[in-house]
Amino acid sequence: QKEVEQNSGPLSVPEGAIASLNCTYSDRVSQSFFWYRQYSGKSPELIMSIYSNGDKEDGRFTAQLNKASQYVSLLIRDSQPSDSATYLCAVNGGIYNFNKFYFGSGTKLNVKP
Amino acid sequence: DGGITQSPKYLFRKEGQNVTLSCEQNLNHDAMYWYRQDPGQGLRLIYYSQIVNDFQKGDIAEGYSVSREKKESFPLTVTSAQKNPTAFYLCACTTVRSGANVLTFGAGSRLTVL
């Protein structure tokens, strides 16, 4: 079983819509969760981090964490064509493995003008 | 790139050759990492180092070697033992934000075996 699972997509949404990206993880002791955006041919860049249950908002982005269900999601409001990229979910390895990070395979998002 | 410099950006290798990818950081971070990314796949950990002169194998260390002689530098050697080395290689460091470790990546090195 993979530590972090994501739907590979592609997820297509029209411009201005809400894009919803989901991720599940297997290690219950994981404590830190991240969303990275990766444009084609480029390296990942951090867009959101979340550490406690609930929602965390930053501009058009909202990260949601549910540790009991072991899932984390990313909502992108008012999606723009420039949001078209692959979104990687990452999970920190927990208190006994806090220096390791596990990544999902990414969800490709296409925002259509 | 957050002060993490990877070189070269593109590299071509003939089968049977060893190649070394450079990663330098000026962020004064202790922990450094090497990941490999294949098309349509997530990042897989090759090696990581938490302090100078110490490093640990990740999930796919076979065919790779590293050194950590200086805090600023963490070069990765792709040896001829690595059977499928064509991939995008990413170096990263951790920084602490809000009490948690966060990974920051360099621009990456794309290796192609001819």
Q: Work out the radius of gyration of chain A.
A: 13 Å
Q: Approximately what portion of the residues of chain B adopt beta-strand conformation?
A: over 45%
Morphology of chain A = globular
Unreliably modeled segments of chain A = none
Rg of chain B, nearest Å = 13 Å
Helix content of chain A: under 10%
Number of beta-strand segments of chain B: 11
Low-confidence stretches of chain B: none
Alpha carbon gap, first and last residue of chain A: 37 Å
Report the portion of residues of chain A in β strands.
Answer: over 45%
Main interface: chain pair and counts: A-B, 23 and 26 residues
Write up this protein.
The complex is a heterodimer of chains A (113) and B (114). With 113 residues, chain A is an all-beta fold. Chain A is built from no helices and eleven strands. In chain A, the strands form two sheets. In chain A, strands 2, 4, 5, 9, 10 and 11 form a six-stranded mixed β-sheet that branches. A five-stranded antiparallel β-sheet of chain A has the order 1-3-8-7-6, with no helix packed on it. In chain A, a hairpin with a 2-residue loop joins strand 6 (54-58) and strand 7. Chain B is built from no helices and eleven strands. Chain B has strands at residues 4-7, 10-13, 19-25, 32-37, 43-51, 54-57, 64-66, 76-78, 87-97, 100-105, 109-113. In chain B, strands 2, 4, 5, 6, 9, 10 and 11 form a seven-stranded mixed β-sheet that branches. In chain B, a hairpin with a 2-residue loop joins strand 5 (43-51) and strand 6. Chain B starts with a strand and ends with a strand. Chain A binds chain B through residues 4, 8, 31-32, 34, 42-46, 49, 51, 88, 90, 92, 98-101, 103-106, and chain B through 1, 31, 33, 35, 40-45, 48, 50, 58, 90, 94, 97-98, 100-108.
